[in-house]
Design goal:
This protein is α+β, with helices and mostly antiparallel strands. The strands form 4 sheets. It has a 4-stranded antiparallel β-sheet, with helices on both faces. Strand 8 and strand 9 form a beta hairpin. The protein starts with 8 loop residues before the first helix and ends in a 28-residue tail after the last helix. The N terminus is likely disordered.
Amino acid sequence: MSNDIKMSRRNFLKNVGMAGVTAGVAGSTGLTLAGEVFGSTTSGGVYRRPWWVREVDEPTTGIRWEQIKRVDASQDTLFGNVLGRFASEEENRRLVQVRSDLLLERLNAEEPGYMLKDQALENAVRQTRTAIPRSFLGAQRALTPEQRGVPRWEGTPDEAAHIVKVALRQMGAASVGIVHLDERTRKLIYAVDADGKRIEFEDVEQAYETAQKRVIPNRAEWVIVYAVQMSEDALRRAPTKIAEFGTQSAYQRGLLIQNGLQEFLHGLGYQGLGEVVLNGLGISPALAVMGGLGELSRQNRVITPEYGPMVRLFKLVTDLPLAADRPIDAGITRFCKTCKKCAEACPPSALSFDTEPGWTPVGEWSNPGHQAWFENSLRCRRFWYEEAGTNCGICFAVCPFTKQGKSFMHQFVHMQIATAPTVNSLTRSMDDAFGYGVRKDPDAWWNLDLPEYGIDTTKGK
């Protein structure tokens, strides 16, 4: 669908009419449009969601578990090392130099979004993040129950999920899901971590780490996966250093939360085994989908009902028995089949225009055995270095789900997407007509009256 579609008065009224029909259907299931009638809670009895976010037995994109393989993240991902093994060392060095030259050129030209204040801000949060300790086993400085002279905390799996989710919310996590590790979902934990250490499961009581491997006890059967919000106002300036600051800030908060969660579990008498390298340990999007945080999208990233794609994902393995969550269906994947807005906006054309998600990966950086809109990661990463000079995020910024659901109309549109997919095309047209996703002035960001961290943490309440 073309980006220059205009919303006529007739089409707008037609959509409002369809909205009325949807409201009638919704009313029959107990929705009070003027108030807040919600659906079921997630595990632990927290994070009550709107009724149209349904829990389902299987994700909305298909999985063939027998074909899924544990990933060697040191070889088959693009973590950290520009294009990794998918380019020569010489080419990787060239790309680093090109980006450095671009940043200097834009700095000297005082280009908005790349000026000294912009680059200093992004670099400040990046360097602070790299200085924060990150470990597999955690700091283990909190007093244990044994040290206090009391038994370790005991409760039902649902009670455990409740206190973990409440604690994580207070630490800054936007939403939390629980995945039970079995013979299938263990495949989502890396075989080799991004730094080259093997990750192995062994029949031991305590996790341990050597120079060659990280060992997860077989009794550690639960993954806690959590989302941290990125600033929509920052990402609306993508690709600039302001947008990259939004990304780096979320990574910094995610790391602080990991350290806090590891100490919380240690203080209860349990183990928390975290990411040692950024995006390490396992496949974040897959675990987030299995844990009910969101659905896989055309971006080949997770879109959440609450925050759209404006999140970064983190995960931790524990031996605290927890009630697991289930995948969800909020109509997000169905909407992506029609929308294609992110693919249209992607400068290097790295995103798929196929209507249906496919089963054949575009490259070796994608794991076979699951259905997705596989992106061309090399095109994406080259754009970062050769043209943007930063990371990107345009696809996040233009996504119709990016808008926060504070107003009645935005919540209403989310409900319509979930319950009336026949109007998805029109909904996409309205998103264009009202100018959502248009890039904002980078320099104007410095004069916005933003909340703490640039994000709203009230969860629509």
